[in-house]
Amino acid sequence: MDISPLSPTAQTARSAAATPAAQTRSAEKAGQEFEALMVGQMLESMFAGIETGSAFGGGQGERTWRSFMLQEYGKAIAEAGTLGIGRMVEADVARLYGQTSEGTKG
Questions:
Q1: Is 80 within a domain?
Q2: Which of 4-13, 23-32, 70-79, 93-102 has the highest mean pLDDT?
Q3: Is 15 part of a structural domain of the chain?
Q4: How many domains are there within the chain?
Q5: What is the pLDDT of residues 18-69, one digit of tens each?
Q6: Which of 26, 43, 90, 100 could form a disulfide with 31 if both were Cys (CB 3.0 to 4.6 A apart)?
Q7: For residue 75, what are the domain limits?
Q8: In angstroms, rounded to a whole number, what is the distance separating the alpha carbons of residues 12 and 1?
Q9: Is residue 83 part of a domain?
């Protein structure tokens, strides 16, 4: 995940200099990362009420590592692209890139 300063001037200059292919890849990545994060959070809420069973380990180890497992499930679901959340975010990010680059040309 790219964490950069929130300077509007630097951000506008960077997006204007980026090629359309780079913007497309960036939009795809942002959409997929958002979907993975959202699905991981939904799974954590879903698994919150489930007790750790002793049949397959359970205990403190399972409680400790469950969030990591659910984040990886979220990534796998996002990579499959079956929910479509990432595609919606990708379309919005691509639209915003288009508005930003058009706004800096004039």
A1: yes
A2: 70-79
A3: no
A4: 1
A5: 677 787 788 888 888 999 999 999 999 988 887 776 666 677 777 788 889 9
A6: 90
A7: 20-49+59-103
A8: 19
A9: yes
